[in-house]
Amino acid sequence: MASVEVKINFIEQVKESRRKIRDCFKKSHEALQLRESILLSRIDEIEKDYNTKTQEMQELLEALDKSKSFITDTLTSNKLKATHRGIESLLNKQIEELSADTDSSIAFEWNNQFETDIEQLGSIKLNGQTNKPPTRTFPPQVKPVIPNYKAKQLPTAYCCNNSNKKALGELNCPRGIAVHYQTGNIYLADCNNHRIQVFSSNGDYLFMFSEKMNNPVGICITHNKVFVTQYNSHYINKYELEGKLIKSVGRKGNGEAQFYYPCGLDVFDGSARL
């Protein structure tokens, strides 16, 4: 009788063990299914986000393809092309001579890019809608080379990285550049001449201003005011569009409202914040 009870107890223990094992497997399976569901959901989110970013990038590139770019140069010899893919290096590539019979983007052979400014769509039309080859170029020291592209006439100022280039319309180490969206005027930081020179959208010299300038580098325009970083003086100047100094902000240091050789300057999200 005792032997039978032992066997019954053993069988019950085996059944209980099997039940616990089944419960354990069931819980593990449910946990795996939950993790799989979370993972698949996350993958879907990543894929949607990727598709959204891809679409936004495509729209940006299409917009860039319709816009025009102004780029300043400083030092080394580079070949760059403004296309719907942005500013593209053409180093070590064959560049053909200027042609007015074909249609695409505009390429430039020139010195090292320092800063670019993309005009707002439709705010500037360079020399109307003509298809004539460029007779002048902007910025200075830019050789227009448009391989298999329709040429649009581009304006220029005269420049060499040369201390003798001090006359009006001549540039010595041009740095920052900004376009006023209403007038189309081009404001260019003539760094080594310690002044801002202003050109029309056709590249004609208009005027310059130099009050309290010391190697201007970064420049931007917002709310009809011009802001310029003074590299060697460690402050930012605020000007009227015609060049009248409004105020200066900052001094050398690393604290609040202090700068250390300030360079780039831009407007935050279309506001008045820099």
Q: What profile does the largest beta sheet have?
A: 4 strands, antiparallel
User: Number of DSSP helices?
Assistant: 1
Q: Which fold name is given in CATH as the topology?
A: Thrombin, subunit H
SSE topology string: HEEEEEEEEEEEEEEEE
Strands ordered across the widest β-sheet = 2-1-3-4
How would you describe what is shown here?
The protein has 274 residues and is α+β, with helices and mostly antiparallel strands. It has one domain (65-259): Thrombin, subunit H (Beta Barrel), CATH 2.40.10.500. It has 1 helix and 16 strands. A 4-stranded antiparallel sheet has the order 2-1-3-4. Strand 1 (69-83) and strand 2 form a beta hairpin. The longest helix is centred in the N-terminal third of the chain and has 65 residues, at 2-66. The termini are far apart.
